[in-house]
C-alpha cells in the first residue's frame, strides 16, 4: 500500500513533466507557424490545446484523490499542493501557445510579424522554451540552483518585450492591426516566462516549505 | 476541536471574500485613475497590490496547515483545494488592476484612453466589477444559479474587447503608443472577467465534486 502511494506520487511528477513536454512542443510549433505563416501547423497547435487541458484535469483529480485517501503530511502534502498550482500554470502556458497560433491563423496569409521583429520574436520563443525545459528539470530533480537560471531567462524575456514595445512606439510603417498583434504576441511570450518562474518558485515551496508563491513581487509585468 | 476546525474553514471563505473586496476596490480605483488621469490614485493602487499578495500567502498557509492537521475529506477537502485555486485567481486579478494603474501612471499627463473609447473602457471595468461581486456571492452562498450571470458578464466583456480592437484596426488618428496601451488595457479587463468565471467554476467543483476547472474550453480568449 505504502509502495503504491509512493508510485502514485511519482506519477504526479511524471504527469507534470509530460505536460511541460507537451507545452514545449506547442510553443515551438506555434512560433514556427507564426514566423513561417504555416496555417496547417497553427491549426494543429490550436486543436492540440484541449489535450493539455485534459491532462491538467486528470492530474488534478489524481492529486485530490491522493489528498483524500492518504492524508499526506510534510513533503508529500507540499508536493500535492504545489502540483495543483503547477498544473494550473502549465495549462495556462498551453493556452498562451494556442493564442500565438490564433494570431498566426488570423493574420494568414499576411505575416503577423514585420521583418524587423522576426529575430526578436524567435528569441522570445527560444527563451520561453529554455525557461520551460529548465523549470521541468527543477521539478524533476528539485534542483533549486537551476531555478536562478529560469529567473535570468525571464529577465531577458522582459527586456525583449520592452525593446519591441519601445521600437513600436517610436517606429513607423506599421498598420494598426500589426501593432495590436505584436503587442499581444510579446505579452504572450512574456507571460510564458512568468509562468516558468512560478513553476520553479513552487518547487522552492516543495523543498523548503516556504510560502507557495515565495518571493512574489506583486506586479509581475515590467513597465513599458 | 471540531468546532475550531469548522471555524477555521469559515475563515478561509471569509479571507477569499476579503480578497475579492480588495480586488474590487483596486479595480474601481485603477479605472478611475486611468480615466481621470489621477496619478496619486494610480500610485495608491500600485502600492496596495502587495497587500493583496500578502493575503494570498496567508490564506495559502492556513489552507495547507488545515490540510496537514485535519486530513479533511469530501466537501471540506474540496473547499480547501478550491480555495487554493481561488486565492491564486484573486491575486492575479489584483495584479491586473495594478497593471491598469501602471498604464495610467506611464501615460500621465496624457490620457491613456482616447475620447472615443472612454465609455467602452468604463463599461469593461464595470462589467469586471459586477462579475467579481457576483463571483464573491457565489463563493459565499454556493449559489450556482448566479454563476450563469458571471459567464454572461464575461461574454459581454469579450464582445467589448473585440469591438474596441476592431475599431482600432480600422480607425486612424491613434499614435502607436496609444494602440499598444489600449490593446493591453482591453486585454487586462478581459482577463479579469476570465478569472471571475474561473472562480465560480471552482465553486462548482466544491459543490458538485466535478473537475476543479470544469467546462474548461481550452482557449479562453476570443479571437480578434
Automatic annotation (TrEMBL), chains A, B:
Subcellular location: Cytoplasm
SUPFAM superfamilies referenced in this protein's UniProt entry, alphabetically: PhoU-like
Signal peptide: none
InterPro entries: PhoU (IPR028366), PhoU-like_sf (IPR038078), PhoU_dom (IPR026022)
Any single biological process term in GO: negative regulation of phosphate metabolic process
Keyword line: Cytoplasm, Phosphate transport, Transport
Subunit annotation: Homodimer.
NCBIfam families, sorted: phoU_full
Physiological role: Plays a role in the regulation of phosphate uptake.
Official protein name in the record: Phosphate-specific transport system accessory protein PhoU
Organism: Brachybacterium alimentarium
Organism ancestry: Bacteria, Bacillati, Actinomycetota, Actinomycetes, Micrococcales
The encoding gene: phoU
Amino acid at each position: 500500500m505504502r509502495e503504491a502511494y509512493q508510485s502514485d506520487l511519482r506519477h504526479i511528477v511524471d504527469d507534470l513533466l509530460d505536460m511541460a513536454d507537451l507545452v514545449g512542443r506547442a510553443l515551438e510549433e506555434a512560433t514556427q507557424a507564426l514566423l513561417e505563416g504555416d496555417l496547417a501547423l497553427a491549426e494543429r497547435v490550436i486543436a492540440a490545446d484541449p489535450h493539455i487541458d485534459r491532462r491538467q484535469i486528470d492530474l488534478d483529480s489524481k492529486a485530490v484523490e491522493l489528498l483524500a485517501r492518504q492524508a499526506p503530511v510534510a513533503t508529500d502534502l507540499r508536493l500535492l499542493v504545489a502540483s495543483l498550482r503547477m498544473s494550473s500554470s502549465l495549462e495556462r502556458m498551453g493556452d498562451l501557445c494556442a493564442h500565438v497560433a490564433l494570431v498566426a491563423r488570423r493574420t494568414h496569409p499576411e505575416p503577423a510579424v514585420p521583418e524587423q521583429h522576426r529575430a526578436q520574436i524567435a528569441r522570445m520563443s527560444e527563451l520561453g522554451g529554455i525557461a520551460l525545459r529548465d523549470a521541468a528539470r527543477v521539478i524533476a530533480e528539485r534542483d533549486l540552483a537551476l531555478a536562478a537560471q529560469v529567473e535570468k531567462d525571464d529577465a531577458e524575456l522582459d527586456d525583449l518585450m520592452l525593446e519591441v514595445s519601445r521600437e513600436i512606439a517610436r517606429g513607423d510603417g506599421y498598420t494598426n492591426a500589426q501593432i495590436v498583434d505584436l503587442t499581444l504576441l510579446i505579452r504572450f511570450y512574456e507571460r510564458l516566462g512568468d509562468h516558468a518562474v512560478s513553476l520553479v518558485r513552487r518547487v522552492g515551496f516543495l523543498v523548503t516549505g516556504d510560502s507557495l508563491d515565495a518571493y512574489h513581487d506583486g506586479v509581475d509585468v515590467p513597465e513599458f
